[in-house]
Amino acid sequence: MKLSELRKIFKDNNFKGYKYYNKEGLTKFLEGKGLLPNEPTKVPNFEYLKKIRKQPKKVEITDTETNNITVFPSIYKAAKHLLLNPGKIKYHNGKVYQNKYAINILD
């Protein structure tokens, strides 16, 4: 639930001090009073996240100065090797990064 919805439930039941609670505090308080509906927590891209873990994409990085080709088992490991954010590996797929590394994500 959103913070505004939690505050509304808190205020509608005449509890005072709702402005001083954060979302976690409001949730715990209202659950303790039994005022929150039982909703299962939803993870929006759970299937996508499971696929990333079980089927990581291989990454081939070519050093354009020495022509050394290195293949990494995952985007994360390639990013760790280059001291980059994994998002940069995806962004530079098929491009040359800093005029030195040619990055290709293999399927």
Present the secondary structure layout.
Layout: H1 3-12, H2 23-33, H3 46-54, E1 58-63, E2 68-72, H4 75-82, H5 86-91, E3 95-97, E4 101-106
Describe, in plain words, how this protein is organized in 3D.
The chain has a 4-stranded antiparallel sheet with strand order 2-1-4-3. The chain folds into 2 domains: 3-33, no CATH class; 48-106, Winged helix-like DNA-binding domain superfamily/Winged helix DNA-binding domain (Arc Repressor Mutant, subunit A). The mean pLDDT is 85. Helix 1 (3-12) packs across helix 2 (23-33). By secondary structure, the chain is an alpha+beta fold. A hairpin with a 3-residue loop joins strand 3 and strand 4. The chain has 5 helices and 4 strands.
In a nutshell, what does this entry contain?
The protein is an alpha+beta fold and 107 residues long. It is 41% helix and 19% strand. Helix 1 packs across helix 2.
